């Protein structure tokens, strides 16, 4: 079945990356169906996407561990491909409640693949993470870099799912699967209508910076100032969430080439430190962002960033938006929506 023969099921479609993907999918003429268990999101994001695009999106509050619920969605809609964003993703929580993480991410994905197979749907895009590379043997990470030395259960769930997908493709030739390894998504849709809306305290750097800028939080805690990096703070590859979302459109096109299993990094290849991100955001919002350097966070790596050249070569995808775009769009979203979707 070609990807264009039916609609795309977007698991985790109410989440940060998922909701931005909905916009680019609809803009590219795809029909979508959303499944989300709302464990770290609300359907406010999907409502906004419908308002922005003038299109209605069938939306299901369903947990992937509820296989019957997933089957019902496949029975109701002609699904031709799946983009699987849904995942628990808080690194710290995954250390505290590993069984919950393994059940949700692994069992959820296996159920989804089972139901896909029952319905003859073999086009699959998986949201993986740069975290699967673990301790860098060299940088930038390319797709050939060894994987599996992850430092936490969250990372291992991504790695194990990658292994499952590889075994599945080797055993059953019908499958076309693209694994996308995300680096650090940041920013928001340039309209300011959708953005990252974490429930509770944000774990990631950029939403923390934005909440300090709006006065919601007092200061940014810089987690480590003594790394072996130019300014002592952690260095990452931040990419605009709309660029990241667009990568999925290119991946869908690739699936239609009957590509078997492919793996691509989605990053910019440009490393930035925590202090550089704070300075860039200060410039955008015109305010001082107070910060305090504290202890390192357990399991954090000093530096990692992508070699994104394979995605450029094979998917014709390249991150186009700059650090300034990320900061401006995040600031617009945060100032227009200080209470997220509420
Ligand atoms: C970035 C940098 C921190 C918070 C994690 C996952 C990854 C991906 C994104 C899923 C680091 C520093 C952070 C803060 C800080 N997946 N920092 N103060 O850890 O690179 O990646 O999230 O969602 O798989 O591992 O992202 O944004 O947490 O941290 O100084 O309050 O900012 O130490 O150097 P990370 P991050």
From TrEMBL:
Pfam families: GDP_Man_Dehyd
Alphabetical UniProt keywords: Carbohydrate metabolism, Galactose metabolism, Isomerase, NAD
Main EC class the enzyme belongs to: isomerase
Cofactor(s) the protein needs: NAD(+)
Domain NAD(P)-binding: residue ranges: 9-329
GO MF terms, alphabetically ordered: UDP-glucose 4-epimerase activity; UDP-N-acetylglucosamine 4-epimerase activity
Listed EC numbers: 5.1.3.2
SUPFAM superfamilies the record matches: NAD(P)-binding Rossmann-fold domains (SSF51735)
Pathway(s) served: Carbohydrate metabolism; galactose metabolism
Reactions this protein catalyses: UDP-alpha-D-glucose = UDP-alpha-D-galactose; UDP-N-acetyl-alpha-D-glucosamine = UDP-N-acetyl-alpha-D-galactosamine
GO biological process, any: galactose metabolic process
Function statement: Catalyzes two distinct but analogous reactions: the reversible epimerization of UDP-glucose to UDP-galactose and the reversible epimerization of UDP-N-acetylglucosamine to UDP-N-acetylgalactosamine. The reaction with UDP-Gal plays a critical role in the Leloir pathway of galactose catabolism in which galactose is converted to the glycolytic intermediate glucose 6-phosphate. It contributes to the catabolism of dietary galactose and enables the endogenous biosynthesis of both UDP-Gal and UDP-GalNAc when exogenous sources are limited.
Binding partners and assembly: Homodimer.
Family the UniProt entry places it in: Belongs to the NAD(P)-dependent epimerase/dehydratase family.
Cross-referenced PANTHER family: UDP-GLUCOSE 4-EPIMERASE
Name this polypeptide is given: UDP-glucose 4-epimerase
